């Protein structure tokens, strides 16, 4: 039995409208600042004749479906595609009640400690109408207990905000044990596993990879936070719990209710939905560092892959398997950014002054996805009626257009962020955000065409700056035909 497969966790870690400003393919006319124009594509690459001098960003997208493959463009166009070996990583952490008199005071749980399954004894620490908080009394804990005041705040916000919003936005929370509650087990074995929290789908059904393992109830396994860590605050831990709860909701509604017990979707798709849950339930705080890694955190990590250079639509919706150790942060962020984009394109939601939420189409789309029998990339057309590659092209366009105030086409922009009156965090994405004064984003990296790295991931994107100096100048970019290139030009000056 592959014990690690079912574990899901958080890693530590004023322009004219589109009809007027988007010309036909290859047509250089009507190309004002802010406009987006489709480029011509041939077997040799992409090209466009530019009517006016100016500065443009070419959005070069590879429509190839391969995984871990990089194709050449520019002077590298004739270079054979190179395949990057996978870098597997086990699932790793980051980030109406029943009769109370019938609730046992102690219980045994089978847990994972990073190397093997062990059985521990736990005692009830706290009991509410919605939650049972268990404390592992078998495993020694060198970090010390979570402060009572912090824990009370976690329980209040999780029970009062996260759980009802989760059901409203994503769908019902299962109750396989019939207790009417979610179990939260606080155990140092989670720390031993290298996690702050995790869940196992095996606890609520015999899904892919479970064998005979499972504790038979909805359980969030929580470690002890280091008091000096950034995830030791109540809000940070609520955000982590919200992430893990969404994994259980997805597994129940998608796999178990549809009898898709052998489903093996891309791990980053499920992680993306849990990152989205952190956002939509109101605790989009630590999540900012995840989606920032998919936009541009190259300088901090000293790694080109911590940006749009390291992401691919294929790596977050196609295939299956374990986490990619080298690109874990960017791929989690990319999955969130893609799903957030789809949520907004389907109508998103309204946030009222009292913190209540109303569906504008995004919630219905999420619930369609969570209950659809279609898996992975097939679920995009099944729930939106749109082709995956068309959506991906628009998504990549939105990443580089958003925040520049040059184009107001909703298809090419993320929505403005909205303040949550219940949590004081902001819903949504800002590609130019200042994150706690620690990091200021400046959109995705844009490479000058003459010094570009010359490699594009299958399913990935390259943003290339082109300066046109003469009217009618033709810009041609050779691209390996196997990359199945598609490109647009976005005028910025």
Number of self-contained structural domains? 1
**Alpha-carbon Rg, integer:** 24 Å
The chain-level mean pLDDT equals 89
Strand content: 15-25%
What class would the helix/strand composition place it in? Answer: alpha+beta
Strands, total number:
26
Percent of residues in helices: 25-40%
Number of helical regions: 12
- How is the biggest beta sheet arranged? 7 strands, mixed
Termini distance? 58 Å
Morphology = elongated
Low-confidence stretches: 1-26, 87-102
Question: How would you portray this structure in words?
Answer:
The protein is of the alpha+beta class and 493 residues long. The chain contains twelve helices and 26 strands. The chain has helices at residues 18-21, 148-169, 188-193, 234-256, 267-280, 287-293, 298-301, 313-317, 328-345, 362-371, 379-384, 388-401; strands spanning 7-9, 36-38, 40-42, 45-50, 54-62, 69-72, 82-83, 88-89, 106-112, 117-127, 131-136, 182-186, 197-200, 219-222, 323-324, 349-351, 357-359, 418-419, 426-427, 434-435, 439-440, 447-448, 455-457, 461-468, 473-478, 485-491. Helix 4 crosses helix 5.
């Amino acid at each position: 039995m592959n014990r690690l497969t079912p574990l899901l966790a958080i890693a530590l870690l004023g322009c004219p409208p589109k009809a007027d400003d988007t010309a036909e393919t290859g047509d250089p006319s009507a190309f004002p600042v802010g406009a987006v124009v489709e480029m011509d594509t041939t077997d040799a690459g992409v090209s466009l004749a530019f009517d006016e001098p100016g500065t443009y960003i070419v959005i070069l997208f590879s429509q190839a479906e391969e995984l871990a493959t990089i194709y050449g463009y520019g002077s590298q166009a004739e270079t054979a595609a190179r395949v990057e070996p996978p870098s597997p990583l086990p699932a790793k952490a980051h980030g109406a009640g029943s009769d109370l008199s019938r609730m046992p005071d102690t219980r045994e749980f089978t847990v994972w400690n990073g190397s093997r399954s062990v059985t521990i004894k736990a005692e009830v620490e706290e009991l509410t109408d919605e939650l049972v908080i268990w404390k592992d009394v078998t495993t020694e804990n060198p970090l010390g207990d979570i402060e009572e005041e912090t824990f009370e705040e976690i329980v209040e916000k999780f029970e009062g905000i996260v759980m009802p919003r989760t059901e409203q936005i994503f769908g019902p929370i299962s109750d396989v044990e019939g207790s009417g509650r979610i179990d939260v087990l606080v155990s140092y074995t989670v720390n031993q596993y290298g996690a702050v929290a995790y869940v196992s789908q095996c606890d609520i059904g015999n899904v892919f990879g479970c064998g005979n393992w499972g504790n038979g109830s909805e359980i969030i396994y929580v470690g002890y936070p280091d008091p000096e860590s950034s995830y030791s605050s109540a809000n940070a831990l609520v955000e982590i719990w919200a992430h893990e709860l969404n994994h259980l909701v997805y597994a129940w509604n998608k796999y178990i209710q549809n009898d898709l017990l052998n489903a093996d979707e891309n791990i980053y798709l499920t992680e993306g939905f849990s990152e989205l849950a952190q956002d939509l339930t109101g605790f989009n705080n630590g999540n900012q560092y995840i989606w920032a890694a998919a936009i541009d955190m190259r300088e901090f990590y000293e790694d080109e892959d911590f940006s749009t250079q390291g992401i691919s639509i294929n790596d977050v919706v196609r295939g299956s398997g374990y986490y990619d150790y080298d690109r874990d942060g960017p791929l989690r962020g990319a999955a969130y950014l893609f799903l957030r984009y789809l949520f907004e394109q389907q109508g998103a939601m309204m946030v009222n002054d009292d913190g209540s939420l109303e569906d504008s189409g995004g919630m219905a789309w999420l619930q369609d996805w969570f209950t659809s029998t279609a898996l992975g990339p097939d679920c995009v057309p099944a729930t939106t009626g749109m082709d995956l590659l068309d959506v991906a092209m628009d998504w990549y366009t939105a990443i580089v257009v958003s925040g520049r105030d040059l184009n107001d086409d909703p298809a090419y922009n993320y929505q403005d962020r909205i303040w949550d009156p219940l949590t004081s965090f902001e819903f949504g994405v800002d590609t130019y955000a200042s994150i706690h004064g620690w990091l200021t984003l400046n959109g995705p990296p844009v490479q000058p065409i003459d010094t570009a790295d010359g490699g594009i991931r299958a399913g990935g994107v390259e943003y290339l700056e082109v300066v046109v100096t003469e009217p009618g100048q033709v810009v041609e970019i050779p691209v390996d035909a196997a990359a199945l290139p598609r490109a647009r030009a976005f005028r910025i000056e």
